[in-house]
Amino acid sequence: MSVTHVSGTLYIIATPIGNLEDITARAVRILGEVDLIACEDTRQTRKLLDRYGISKPLLSYHEHNEQPRSADLLRELKAGKDIALVSDAGTPLIADPGYRLVEQAREIGIPVSPIPGPSALLAALSASGLPTNSFSFHGFLPPKRGQRRKLLEDLRASDATLVFYEAPHRILDTLEDVDEILGSRPLVLARELTKIHEEFLRGTAAGLRETLGKRASVKGEITLMIGKGETAQVDETPLAEAVDKLVRSGVPKMEALKTVARQRGLPKREVYKQINER
């Protein structure tokens, strides 16, 4: 008599993004029932498990070991073990590792079950005051300025609210790029969501950069949301003439270039190039 082999289930479990009370009853139950928990930082996950009296084996699973660890976890799943995948905070796979494991599990017929819960992306959007009927999420902005500016330029024509994660040590440079490329669009910066120092800052990129620049340092995880720009009226005035008009009124030339670029929805360097080529 043959025995049908039954694999385990891979659970994708959302965990708190700051406040440890922000976890569902189902998530706590499943974490207590699985055979193994795969997590980014075992120390971080242990804090959550200790808070709820859960003691389970932990296996590190992060961007630097994702490929070999995926193979290890798939073997355990095939052997019938139930495994929970968690990130340090929020919903796994959202700007976090896990795609390779889920893809391969699906390909070989292993059940994958999401346990929904906290997400910095959705939490920030829900309280931002920006339109949420259409938005696009782009994870962490590229750390290199050239790549970051190119991405922002590619998104300039988007009608959706743009959402990014950003590191605190890069936020001032990012806001400078947003100001130059996307202009005076409404921005909301959410910092330290659900934690004691939770903060929402609203304004333009230039205004937020000025506000943060006055602080001794900027700390905490950041979600940056950029609203749709206003539909600009068509201005047929030649670029050089528009810049010269501002310069004659006392505006420094580089500031005039930046202003005209914003008004026309063009990168500053494109305006500079066209003026110098005339």
> What's the number of extended β-strand segments?
10
How many helices does DSSP assign?
A: 11
Topology pattern, helix = H, strand = E: EHEHEHEHEHEHEHEEHEHHH
| Physical arrangement of strands within the biggest beta sheet | 3-2-4-1-5
CATH architecture of the largest domain: 3-Layer(aba) Sandwich
Which stretches are low in confidence, meaning pLDDT under 50 for 5 or more residues running? Answer: none
Number of domains: 3
- What best-fitting shape do the alpha-carbon axes yield? elongated
The structure class reads alpha/beta
Strand content: 15-25%
Distance between the termini: 86 Å
Task: Report the top-level CATH class of the largest domain.
Answer: Alpha Beta
Helical proportion, percent range: 25-40%
Query: Quick check: average pLDDT?
Result: 90
Major sheet details: 5 strands, parallel
CATH names the topology of the largest domain as Cobalt-precorrin-4 Transmethylase, domain 1
Give the tags.
5-stranded mixed β-sheet, alpha/beta, Cobalt-precorrin-4 Transmethylase, domain 1, Methyltransferase, Cobalt-precorrin-4 Transmethylase, Domain 2, 11 helices, elongated, 3 domains, 278 residues
Structure explained in plain terms:
There is one protein chain. The protein has 278 residues and is α/β, with parallel strands linked by helices. It folds into 3 domains: 10-118, 3-Layer(aba) Sandwich (Cobalt-precorrin-4 Transmethylase, domain 1), CATH 3.40.1010.10; 121-226, Methyltransferase, Cobalt-precorrin-4 Transmethylase, Domain 2 (2-Layer Sandwich), CATH 3.30.950.10; 239-276, no CATH class. Helix content is 40%, strand content 16%. The chain has helices at 25-33, 42-51, 66-78, 99-107, 120-126, 145-154, 171-182, 205-213, 239-248, 253-264, 268-276; strands spanning 10-13, 36-39, 58-60, 83-85, 112-115, 135-140, 161-166, 187-191, 199-203, 222-226. Helix 2 links the parallel strand 2 (36-39) and strand 3 (58-60). It starts with 9 loop residues before the first strand and ends with a helix. The model has no long low-confidence stretch (mean pLDDT 90).
